[in-house]
UniProtKB/TrEMBL annotation:
<keyword id="KW-0119">Carbohydrate metabolism</keyword>
<comment type="similarity">
    <text>Belongs to the four-carbon acid sugar kinase family.</text>
</comment>
<dbReference type="Pfam" id="PF17042">
    <property type="entry name" value="NBD_C"/>
</dbReference>
<dbReference type="GO" id="GO:0016301">
    <property type="term" value="F:kinase activity"/>
</dbReference>
<keyword id="KW-0808">Transferase</keyword>
<keyword id="KW-0067">ATP-binding</keyword>
<dbReference type="InterPro" id="IPR042213">
    <property type="entry name" value="NBD_C_sf"/>
</dbReference>
<protein>
    <submittedName>
        <fullName>Four-carbon acid sugar kinase family protein</fullName>
    </submittedName>
</protein>
<dbReference type="Pfam" id="PF07005">
    <property type="entry name" value="SBD_N"/>
</dbReference>
<keyword id="KW-0547">Nucleotide-binding</keyword>
<dbReference type="InterPro" id="IPR037051">
    <property type="entry name" value="4-carb_acid_sugar_kinase_N_sf"/>
</dbReference>
<feature type="domain" description="Four-carbon acid sugar kinase N-terminal">
    <location>
        <begin position="2"/>
        <end position="162"/>
    </location>
</feature>
<dbReference type="InterPro" id="IPR031475">
    <property type="entry name" value="NBD_C"/>
</dbReference>
<keyword id="KW-0418">Kinase</keyword>
<feature type="domain" description="Four-carbon acid sugar kinase nucleotide binding">
    <location>
        <begin position="264"/>
        <end position="376"/>
    </location>
</feature>
<dbReference type="InterPro" id="IPR010737">
    <property type="entry name" value="4-carb_acid_sugar_kinase_N"/>
</dbReference>
Amino acid sequence: MILVIADDLTGAAEIAGIGLRYGLKVRVCTEIIQEVTEDLLVISADTRSLTENQAVTKVEYLIKSSQQYKPSLIYKKIDSVLRGHVLAEIKAIQDFLVQKNCLIVPTNPSMGRRIQDGKYYVGDKLAHETAFAHDPEFPIQSSEVINMLRAKPTDQVRILAQPILPLQGITVAEVTQKEDLTKWASQWAKIDLLVGGAEFFASILSNLGYNPVEKIFSPQQTALNCLYVSGTTFSDSVEKIQNHASHTGGVCYLPQELVSQPIDSEEFNQSLNRWASEIIQCFKQHQVVIIAIEKQLDTTKITPAELAKLIAKVVKKVWNQVHLAEILIEGGATSAAILAEIPLQNFLPTEEFAQGVIRMQSLERPSTYLTLKPGSYAWPQAVTYAQL
């Protein structure tokens, strides 16, 4: 069994989708489960929304508890642009497993995310010149990979363009194209801890002898009670939702008053109930209802974690009143907050619509399906309910 520990839920789903692509039986969970019969178990640690100390504690618990599965391979999934507590989580795993070397390959070259000459590029731009510079939790202010990792000289992190064995300490691979991924993945057996993004994991599966299988999508009927939750402020999603709201309706924007009031105050609860009622009423006229954040919304008085929790609270109220057959969620922090509130913890992935866009069946409520994607990815055409 292959074990993957991911730093957020959309990352976990992305890995699960790759497992499906290569014909593996896959399970995704947000907590340690007792019995695992699948080929691939992906655990979402949701550490990117925690402090560094909290993240280390969570990873230590997961790596210790997951030894009961006796995994043949452990992979640490991180954000492709190195957001989060990457080095701290790596060290927590290495210390517990007494590992000497680690290889980090975060890039997804098919999406234009690459490392060259020690710098991180997204398309033709340096990472700090893109929308990632405005990330609410981990804004990228430098495209030097060492700086993005917040590495100290004592961390002894080095960046290599070619595998030079034996690897010592923590190595970040320069990757500009798919062939580079294959080259580094071929060395997997000589590495104590493999860390990286989705495309490196796919290359490792190829090196393990797995082959891609034909994609089969479940026939999707007209969605009844589909809730689309957009917790992202990436401009593409925001503009599409605004256009949908003006032409079709069915969009319930987060009220300004909710981000201006103390969470759980009487005024906050009253405003939350009004917003939930608006969303529930909207289902009487629309099969797909969208919860979103307006571009001009002032969120300076609320942290990103509080914002995700606020959205999760209203989803819970809707969940208690409306049977949701499909839930589409943009954004890893939003996804994790919602599942903590509902709560759903155990899933069987059913389709990989595109890289990072995964549909999963809830094992606690089999009539409900979740489709997750990172906020910076686009919805593929196969997800018919998300075509705005």
